[in-house]
């Protein structure tokens, strides 16, 4: 493998363009001919030359550890596995977009400290969670290459220090220097310098455990100011006034602010002697036509027996506070720090999974690649937590949500079924199983799950809406309209319920009633193209061509190449 890397790096050196973004994509199974150390050294050389290496693993036995080392040492993102040529094409397209968005080049963080300060660990906290090469921390000054930065992205580095005792007073412990280039602005070798200071106290009761400057690198990550209701089960922040969580269908408690389990946190010891299969994770959506048997399971990392030390507890508590503040990336950094100190309890693993999942959800619309990476990491940690505590219904439920986000329906069903065995009175599990069955067009199965869920909570608007969809798809239109009307009465702000109600009336050719429901949907979501197309179709049936054109113009404003809108336009 090293010979291939040498040739690739040689090509980049040969075609070196000043101020260009230099990246090498390495597609391999990672199996070497005793040259793994040589590959790692080439990654270090690449980093020194400003070249980051992006590693893609192929095959069932790919060496994830080596590929992660190569990526990390060169300043690249964590290794990913690709399942098909289509995955590779998607990945390359995303990389081209990332390169175009790169504005800041050759970013290097240099840290100088006086005697008595020891750098123990450094972690990139944003945009990817990644450990800094420990070898870099043993040099003076400490030099951390941070590579090239894209426009409108945030980058943070979390440092763990050992500080020797000193006399009381204010003292500088680090002088930080950030060097960078911005070629498009004609800026080269620019520097930002900042001192990091602490206050030594004469006694432990005179200071605070964590002060603002120390916490600043992770707490300044932007927080969501939306005053909506937070789901205690999955942490999703719903719109104000919502009664059920849009993410998992769980009933919402007004004023809820703690995103996950509200009970006190207790570290549970990990059971020793558990054997864990080392099977690779499938991080890509399942391709249509593939069989569930062909889908690999989530790989779980080995766990050990331990409990929190006082140092771990301080780090862990800080992670929990960041998690409560919806600062998921900061929480991940602290939980990873606690884990590096030996904390592999069920609670730590569960919250790591939760933080990764919520961080992934925040990236879903802006970066599909990072969304999949973080959701994959979340699934791994939930799997690991279930190895430690097999009767944890909340971990099984969260694992099912991760699998569903990754479009691994067979694994999602297994996880939700396990959660259902552990918590048979949890209506949110019936809702999720019903939704998966609906997506798979298994309408009888969907009806059974949703009906059972509604027995537990007859006023569950989202389940009523889903059951209405089932009846609509199976041409039980009066029953569909009944369910959807109940859903809109219970929560009139669910635009999809109005939209599905309008569609049900359209199937019965009740055009006026369809328009009434669709108009309510449009008022709640003015940018949804499907609503305008449904309204245009209805107006066309009523021979109101002028209003049909108006609706099509609105649809094409939001989606100029929408096939349905263009087809209707041709009919006019």
Automatic annotation (TrEMBL):
Domain VWFA: 14-100
Alphabetical UniProt keywords: TPR repeat
Protein name stated in the entry: VWFA domain-containing protein
Alphabetized Pfam families for the sequence: ANAPC3, TPR_16, VWA
Ranges for region Disordered: 266-311
TPR repeats: 393-426, 427-460, 461-494, 495-528, 529-562
Organism taxonomic ancestry: Bacteria, Bacillati, Chloroflexota, Ktedonobacteria, Ktedonobacterales
SUPFAM superfamilies hit by this protein: TPR-like, vWA-like
Domain of life assignment: Bacteria
Organism: Dictyobacter kobayashii
Keyword Disulfide bond recorded: no
Polar residues bias locations: 269-296
């Amino acid at each position: 493998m090293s010979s291939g890397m040498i040739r690739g790096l040689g090509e980049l050196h040969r075609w070196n363009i000043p101020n260009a973004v230099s990246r090498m994509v390495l597609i391999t199974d990672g199996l070497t001919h005793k040259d793994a150390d040589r590959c790692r050294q080439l990654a270090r050389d690449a980093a020194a030359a400003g070249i980051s290496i992006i590693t893609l693993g192929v095959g069932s036995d790919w060496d994830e550890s080596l590929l992660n080392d190569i990526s990390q040492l060169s300043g690249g993102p964590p290794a990913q596995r690709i399942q098909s040529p289509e995955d590779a094409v998607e990945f390359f397209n995303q990389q081209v977009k990332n390169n175009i968005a790169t504005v800041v080049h050759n970013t290097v963080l240099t840290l100088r400290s006086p005697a008595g300060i020891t750098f123990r660990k450094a972690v990139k906290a944003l945009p990817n969670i990644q450990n800094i090469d420990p070898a870099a921390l043993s040099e003076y000054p400490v030099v951390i290459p941070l590579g090239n930065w894209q426009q409108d992205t945030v980058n943070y580095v979390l440092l763990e220090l050992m500080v020797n005792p000193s006399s009381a007073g204010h003292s500088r412990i680090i002088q930080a220097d950030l060097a960078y280039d911005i070629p498009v602005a004609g800026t080269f070798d620019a520097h930002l310098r900042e001192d990091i200071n602490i206050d030594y106290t004469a006694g432990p009761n005179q200071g605070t455990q964590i002060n603002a400057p120390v916490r600043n690198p992770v707490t300044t990550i932007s927080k969501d100011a939306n005053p909506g209701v937070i789901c205690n089960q999955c942490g999703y922040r719903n719109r104000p006034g919502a009664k059920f969580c849009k993410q998992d269908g769980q009933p919402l408690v007004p004023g809820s602010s703690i995103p996950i389990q509200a009970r006190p946190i207790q570290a549970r010891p990990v059971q020793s002697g558990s054997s864990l299969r080392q099977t690779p994770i499938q991080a890509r959506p399942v391709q249509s036509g593939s069989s569930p048997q062909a889908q690999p399971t989530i790989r779980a990392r080995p766990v050990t027996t331990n409990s929190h030390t006082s140092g771990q507890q301080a780090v862990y508590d800080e992670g929990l506070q960041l998690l409560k503040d919806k600062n998921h990336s900061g929480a991940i950094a602290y939980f990873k720090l606690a884990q590096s100190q030996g904390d592999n309890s069920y609670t730590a693993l569960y919250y790591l999974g939760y933080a990764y999942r919520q961080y992934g959800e925040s990236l879903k619309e802006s970066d599909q690649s990072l969304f999949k990476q973080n959701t994959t990491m979340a699934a791994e940690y939930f799997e690991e937590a279930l190895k430690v505590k097999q009767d944890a219904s909340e971990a099984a439920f969260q694992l099912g949500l991760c699998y569903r986000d990754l479009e691994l329906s067979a694994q999602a069903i297994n996880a939700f079924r396990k959660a259902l065995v552990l918590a048979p009175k949890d209506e949110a599990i019936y809702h999720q199983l019903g939704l998966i069955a609906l997506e798979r067009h298994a309408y009888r199965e969907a009806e059974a799950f949703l009906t059972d869920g509604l027995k537990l909570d007859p006023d569950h608007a989202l389940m009523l809406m889903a059951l209405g969809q089932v009846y609509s798809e199976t041409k039980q239109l009066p029953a569909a309209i009944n369910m959807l009307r109940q859903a809109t009465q219970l929560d009139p702000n669910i635009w999809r319920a109005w939209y599905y109600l309008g569609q049900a009336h359209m199937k019965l050719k009740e055009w006026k009633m369809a328009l009434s429901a669709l108009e309510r949907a449009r008022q709640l979501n003015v940018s949804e193209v499907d609503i305008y197309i449904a309204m245009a179709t209805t107006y066309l049936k009523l021979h109101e061509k002028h209003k049909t054109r108006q609706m099509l113009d609105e649809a094409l404003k939001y989606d100029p190449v929408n096939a349905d809108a263009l087809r209707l336009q041709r009919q006019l």
